[in-house]
Design goal:
The protein is mainly alpha-helical. It has twelve helices and five strands. 46% of the residues lie in helices and 4% in strands.
């Protein structure tokens, strides 16, 4: 989870649990938190997950002598919002404003054609981009490894010319997305404004990753190849995006009405 989201979760948890001991964190109090927190179930699920991680860490490091069960609500189904092939170019055109005409369209293209999360794109530097070999290494030296792997990918042909043009504006050690040579801290406001101008609703920067995975599935990409490209587990890819694959349940649908072959009928007799 991004540091900003963790800080936001801590503030919300503090408002509710302040003054309570760890022993008072029970399934009942967690249930009351869910009832009182006027936010989406996904937000509450993540916030209680932060509380669980904090208590487990405190127990692991000896700050508390025993852990407690933090009961999370049932995890909500993942959102299935992705950009269509018509929406994507409309969004890129809407992102080309005098203030953000260089970095915002490139952010969208990187999101669509690499499927990487916002933080991985904003922290990308030119030494990680090999334009000759056609590869991007999204891993950062010294970065603590988490379940959110970044990985190394082949640069898609449609993305390559955009990166070549951006490289001419960049410096050897600088960020791929930059303003006057400095790193862009967040893209949320400019991104939301572009969606408003394009009249596209219900999306966020993370929608780019959903879109990349969906497009790969719609084009019938081998699951192993798609999983490696996105640095996403096969289980997640199949569970969340598998229904977009043209082969999704095809064999089962065809076989359900097919007459069984070579079935021996045993007739009764004396």
């Amino acid at each position: 989870m991004a540091p900003g989201r963790i800080a936001y979760a801590v503030l919300a948890l503090t408002d509710f649990f302040e003054g309570n001991t760890v022993a008072e964190v029970t399934p009942q109090t967690c249930g009351r938190y869910v009832d009182k927190r006027v936010r989406s179930l996904g937000t509450v699920w993540r916030e209680l997950g932060v509380l669980r991680a904090a208590i487990n860490y405190a127990h692991k490091t000896g700050m508390i002598t025993r852990t407690v069960a933090v009961e999370l609500p049932e995890r909500p189904e993942p959102r299935d919002r992705w950009l269509t092939r018509m929406e994507a170019p409309n969004l890129i055109r809407a992102a080309r404003t005098p203030q953000a005409r260089l970095y915002l369209p490139l952010f969208i293209l990187l999101g669509l054609y690499t499927g990487r999360r916002k933080e991985a794109i904003l922290s990308l530097r030119w030494p990680q981009v090999d334009l000759q070999a056609g590869r991007i290494d999204f891993e950062v030296a010294g970065r603590r490894r988490t379940n959110k792997k970044r990985g190394v990918i082949q640069i898609p042909p449609r993305l390559l010319p955009h990166l070549r043009r951006a490289r001419k504006r960049g410096t050897d050690l600088g960020y791929v997305l930059q303003i006057n040579g400095g790193r862009i801290k967040d893209i949320k406001k400019g991104f939301a404004a572009a969606f408003g101008r394009a009249s596209i609703e219900g999306v966020s920067p993370h929608t780019m990753r959903h879109t990349a995975a969906t497009w790969l599935m719609q084009n019938g990409t081998d699951l192993w190849q798609a999983s490696g490209f996105l640095s996403m587990s096969m289980e997640t890819l199949q569970r969340v995006y598998g229904l977009h694959h043209p082969d999704y349940q095809r064999e089962a649908a065809e076989n359900i009405g097919r007459r069984p072959q070579n079935v021996r009928v045993i007739s009764g007799g004396s």
